[in-house]
Amino acid sequence: MSILLFGDSHTDIFGGMQDVIKFNTAQCKSSIMTIHRFTDAGDTDLWELLDPWFKNNQSSSLVISVGEIDIRAHFWRHIPRYYQDSQSILDYINSIALKFYNSLVNAFEKYNLERIVVWGAPVAGDGAHYNFKVPFSGSAQTRNILIHLWNRSFVNITNNDSRISFATAYYNFVDPVTYSTVIPSPSHDGVHWRNEYGPKFWEKLIIPALSSRQNFVAGGLWEIMSNNIIDITETISSGTYQYDTWVRTDQAKDAVGKKQIVVNKIPYSFITADQRKLLPDQYNELTLKNLNIK
Fold first, then answer.
1. Rounded CA gap, 74 and 6, in Å?
2. Is the four-CA dihedral 205, 208, 212, 213 of positive or negative sign?
3. What single string gives the DSSP state of each residue in 120-187?
4. For the segment 5-53, what is each residue's pLDDT rounded down to a tens digit?
5. Whole-angstrom Cα distance, residue 64 to residue 206?
6. Boundary residue ending a domain (195, 225, 255)
7. Stated pTM of the model
8. Rounded CA gap, 248 and 151, in Å?
9. Are 81 and 186 within one domain?
10. Structural domain tally of the chain?
11. Are residues 151 and 188 in the same domain?
């Protein structure tokens, strides 16, 4: 039977696989696919097309990839605003993961599916071309930490649900201590997997996850990283790479905007990539850090 494939651009490497029916996001007025859109039944631009696609393509299996854009563009904008302690970071991510899980269960039941595999986001690379529609928020290391926390949260929520599996190659390509992406990068643009990885990932991760009702987390680092303690810290930066971030308000000068917060009694302002030229050569920004580093 055919396998349904839906989601963001990280599904593109699987579009040519055998027996795959891929949802064409170009049909929508906005082709950007996010967790927020998938969980919003009122998003008629998506669901007026996605609902009949499900119904017209009867299948027992769905492979879905959403989340990278949410993590990339939104998580770091909002997490520091609600920060109280390290647990508040997890609470923010867990709430979105639970909402996503509930929407998957609804789709599972509504469209008579037998299996759903969630394909995880790839590693985030330094120096990726900045996209103003879906901008990078936070450094590559911070985004890699957020991807790991998202993976961990979703796996914990679905761990005892045999209907839904999670698969990712993220742990093959990330440093388990610093959360830097390994060099040479597995991505051609710092955002997407190279196309040649598609068949290998499909064979080694997606197909086993579809058939065995288990999570497939490649790379061998999952157990090492699963207990890492993550918290917000302050890092001295020089603006080498383009991304939006939270910086000390007293250093922001003319770039100070309306988005301001206080973390550990220090005020910070949210600065976009094009505003960073207004900052000093070196400035202090908020980042996430692995506290297990000795």
1. 21
2. positive
3. PPPPPPTTPPP-SSS--BS-HHHHHHHHHHHHHHHHHHHTT-TTEEEEE-GGGSB-TTT-PBPSS-SB
4. 999 999 999 999 999 999 999 999 999 999 999 999 999 999 999 999 9
5. 11
6. 225
7. 0.96
8. 30
9. yes
10. 2
11. yes
